[in-house]
Recover the amino acids of this structure.
């Protein structure tokens, strides 16, 4: 029997070889962790030096540290998904006699990954604040530093096992939601931290009257113990779900989708290399079940303000571009960020077809360009909710398409650096779904850049005449494709 400690050692050694020994990208990750630590403790201390008053209750620090939970839950869910239902899970299943050993190894490996400072920013911010206002509570906060990720990891494992066994249709949706859950937890933590630095309290937490920090530790210990015990005892759920996945396998695309896409591409008279890239990209998107889930999520979110009066009233007080960009980013932002991440061994196809990096970048951009029309449709629906008509409604639709086009072109630049970085050796539904989930630093950077560009475009377009906005889109799009081709060239090797 292979013990869980041996499996953990194997997984850590794989990470060391992939990130440090045979690849220097791990050094960049280590530098990022160090920069995060220095920025939080030094930067916040500088701001706190000018504050004359502090908080009266440590309950706010607990609320701040608790925001680590959604971040570590999201990261733990993605890691557990890869380890338990990816291609390498077959090897683990053959090595270990008992499924419970694999579950233990997964929990430990994911927990160690969740201890990284970049995933513990809310708790580190609470520690920086406690160093000035509540120095006697630093030990308790350090306990939370190690305790909250454990709860997040255990909860992620438990949710994953239940979903995979009983609610498989929700699996793809959770793969979309979990990365945005991480981003939302970080965003709320930064906002709350900035508020607390000024010595202010948030009304929500004032009304809750949270207990002191010392009372939370035994409660969280009990909750974490129950979650971990339940997760470890649910190993049978994983074994059944994994065997069902192996039996299902994946189907092959028939001739009809390929013939239809070829006829569609022939209408546009594009160069042969660009058509080849677009066809390959569309076929991979077509076969991926997560693509269907994204489109269904977009349709539901776009129609909700028309159906629900409360959401309609909330949208009615906003510019139509705000909900349009928010819905489009939620549904398709990750898709753009992972445009190059999923290539792996497929890069050999481009070599055999003699496709240059520039042609690949152009083809990728054109392949994902139709997604911008989803933004135009959403803008039209938002115009109906708000009651916007005439030229103003037309301009909002045009600007929604232009804004997402700029975001698409520029966010593909860092996405190009993920080329040849992730190799999907399996062909299971999980492996296909993970192709559309950011797994590298540059894919996460691309997703963040996309959100920042959409926000910046909204503010710029309100100050710029529409001819200038159109010209800016053309320049940004051309620059984005050119720079993407340059960065892809650096990764374009077998």
């Amino acid at each position: 029997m292979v013990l869980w400690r041996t499996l953990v050692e194997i997984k850590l050694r794989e990470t060391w070889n992939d990130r440090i020994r045979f690849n220097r990208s791990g050094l960049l990750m280590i530098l990022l962790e160090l920069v995060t630590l220095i920025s939080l403790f030094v930067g916040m201390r500088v701001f706190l030096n000018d504050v004359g008053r502090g908080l009266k209750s440590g309950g706010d620090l607990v609320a701040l540290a608790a925001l680590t939970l959604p971040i570590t839950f999201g990261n733990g869910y993605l890691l557990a998904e890869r380890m338990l239902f990816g291609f390498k899970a077959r090897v683990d299943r053959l090595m270990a006699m008992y499924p419970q050993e694999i579950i233990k190894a997964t929990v430990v490996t994911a927990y160690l990954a969740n201890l990284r400072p970049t995933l513990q920013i809310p708790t580190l911010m609470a520690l920086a604040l406690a160093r000035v206002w509540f120095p006697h509570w630093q030990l308790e906060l350090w306990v939370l530093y190690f305790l909250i990720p454990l709860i997040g990891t255990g909860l992620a494992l438990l949710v994953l096992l239940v979903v995979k066994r009983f609610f498989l249709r929700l699996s793809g949706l959770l793969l979309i939601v979990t990365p945005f859950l991480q981003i939302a937890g970080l965003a709320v933590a930064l906002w709350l931290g900035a508020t607390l630095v000024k010595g202010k309290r948030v009304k929500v937490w004032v009304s809750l009257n949270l207990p002191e920090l010392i009372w939370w530790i035994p409660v969280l210990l009990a909750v974490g113990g129950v979650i971990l015990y339940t997760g470890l005892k649910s190993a049978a759920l994983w074994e059944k779900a994994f065997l069902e996945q192996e039996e299902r396998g994946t189907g092959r695309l028939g001739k009809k989708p390929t013939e239809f896409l070829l006829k569609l591409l022939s209408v546009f008279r594009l160069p042969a290399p660009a058509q080849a890239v677009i066809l390959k990209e569309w076929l991979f998107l077509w076969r991926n079940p997560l693509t269907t889930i994204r489109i269904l999520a977009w349709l539901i979110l776009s129609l909700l303000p028309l159906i629900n009066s409360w959401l309609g009233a909330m949208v009615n007080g906003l510019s139509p571009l705000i909900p349009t960009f928010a819905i489009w980013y939620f549904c398709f932002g990750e898709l753009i960020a992972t445009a190059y991440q999923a290539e792996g061994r497929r890069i050999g196809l481009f070599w055999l077809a003699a496709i240059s990096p520039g042609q690949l970048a152009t083809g990728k951009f054109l392949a994902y360009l139709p997604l911008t029309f989803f933004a135009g449709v959403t803008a039209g629906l938002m115009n109906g909710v708000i009651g916007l008509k005439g030229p103003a409604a037309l301009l909002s639709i045009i600007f929604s398409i232009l804004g997402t086009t700029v975001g698409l072109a520029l966010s593909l630049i860092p996405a190009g650096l993920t080329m040849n970085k992730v190799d999907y050796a399996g062909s299971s539904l999980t492996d296909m779904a993970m192709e559309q989930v950011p797994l590298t630093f540059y894919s996460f950077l691309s997703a963040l850049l996309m959100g920042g560009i959409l926000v910046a475009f909204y503010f710029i377009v309100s100050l710029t005449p529409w001819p200038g906005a159109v010209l800016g889109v053309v320049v940004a799009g051309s620059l984005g494709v050119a720079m993407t081709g340059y960065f892809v060239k650096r990764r374009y090797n077998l």
In short: DSSP finds 24 helices and no strands in the chain.
